[in-house]
Amino acid sequence: MAQILTGGVGKIEVAEAVERLGLDGVDVTVSSDLDAATRLRTGTADYYLGACHTGAGASLGLLVGLLGQGACHTFGRGTPTADEVDALLVDGKKAFGFALDRIEAVAPVVARAIAGRGA
Amino acid sequence: MSAAGTGLDFTLPQQLTVIALCALTAFVSHLALAVFNDGVRPFLLDFVRGRSTRGATAAVSFGLSAGFVFGLGAPMALASGVLNPWLLFLPTDVLGILAPRKWLAPLLGAAWGAVVVFGLKGANRLAHELPVDFLTALQEMSTPILYLFTLFPVLAVTKQFGRVRGGVVGVVELALVVLTLKLWPTVFAGAVAMAVGVLMLIGFAVARDVGQRRAAAPVSDTAGTGSGDDADPMASLFGASAARLRRHLPLFMVLGAGICVLAQLKIFGGGEATSFLVAKGQYAEAAQVDLYRMLGFLPLIATTALASGAYGIVGFTLAYPVGYLLPNPYLAALAGAAVFAVEVLALSWIGKGLGRLPSVRDSSEHLRAAIGEALGLAILFGSLMAANAMGGGLGILVCGGLYLLNEAMGRPVVRMAAAPAAVLVGGVVLNVLYWLDLFTPVKA
């Protein structure tokens, strides 16, 4: 079971978007960037999805500082394909940021890719 | 004349201020000491530590900022006739980081400032001379913005603390608006309601944090050691960042003076809503709106600054409301320098405080989301009112249609700016139709 935490301005909406998919092997919890950074470092959670206006400030800011840029990726206001997300996961990215008005487009793609890796 | 409200006739001192400030912000960005884009700030940490190149950082900065310059800053400035931070400071973020030499950064920044000042002035003058004056029509925006913005604390409380408390705050705010309208007709109707709503939100958040800490107190031994281990890297990162910023205090004070003077000149609006208020000359309302907006952004800016060692170009945005209210630029310069000095010196302490008050931090996120939602509806509705004022049903068809088209295409223009941008394009379309003798302007 992959534990996904959400944070940033649209954390409730992100969690809802992921829950709505009803994916096996993925558990999503509304959290905060501060809490998520700690839990990802200690290994009590696996992935982080954050949304905010830019897709990198309120969502990823703290995580870039604490986990390092290597573990973080921002989609900004863009929308990735499933293959792109897979490549990022293989690359070891754990924390993802995207724009508030892209939640519906981005969160499902990332959640499905995470679920696909668990299977 | 109505044109006086929106006409951007910059005086020479105003033009020089904007150009000089853009040079300064580009220079500060070049030194990786501050950027406006909250999303770019975290990436400066690796750049400062030499783990990322100037080129790569500039690319990140451009990627995160470009959409907001063309999709938010430019349409907002054209629509309101007032400068805004997205239009001025996002490009100077990028140009400053991009500049390979120290002396080149301020030159590029100044060049951008000149482009904005002269370009916007020309565009504005042209627009007001057209038979269908869409800039005057856009003043319709201020009523929905002011009245719907009043409700943002209700939305934030509902999201964070549930329907019951949200409902209570809603009833209290509505009662206060009605009361204000009746008792003090000269004061903005939402002024008291907004203040009380924000205080209630903060009160709920602090009460929750204090309650939880008290509940956790008996097991503080185990919790203490556990969080002590985890807090360590955060504390050292935050401490190093705050120390880096303190070392450059004089430069930040100059920057603060510049930002505050810009706000004092009444040609600049700090937030999405404030541009339209400043355009209409409602400075007291603008100051109030930006003060509350600051509460939403302060924890974000403090956290990203402490996590990256780079500050916000406009600080905590407190310099905006101070600037709107001050009578002259000299006082504004002094006040701005003082505001930035206090902010930078208090940063470390604010970070510690926020760490202890997670609900307050959480509130700021709900606050920003609530502001976005309230303004989203207000700006959409205001834009349609402007479309109606400009071209009646045809105006609504063209502008509403362009907004829906943007939605259908996956929002190339940021949602907040899509409707005003649609009014601009719609205004041009109606002018072309007038010129083709296919449309008669609606008389007010």
UniProtKB/TrEMBL annotation, chain A:
Record-linked Pfam families: DUF2620 (PF10941)
Q: By its UniProt entry, which InterPro entries does this protein fall under?
A: DUF2620
The protein's name in its UniProt record = DUF2620 family protein
The protein's organism comes out as Streptomyces boluensis
Automatic annotation (TrEMBL), chain B:
User: How far does the signal peptide extend, from start to end residue?
Assistant: none
Q: Where are the transmembrane segments?
A: 16-36, 57-83, 144-162, 182-207, 249-268, 297-318, 330-350, 374-405, 417-436
Which keywords fit this entry according to its UniProt record? Membrane, Transmembrane, Transmembrane helix
| InterPro entries, sorted | Uncharacterised_YhfT (IPR019733)
Q: What's this protein's name?
A: Permease
Biological source species: Streptomyces boluensis
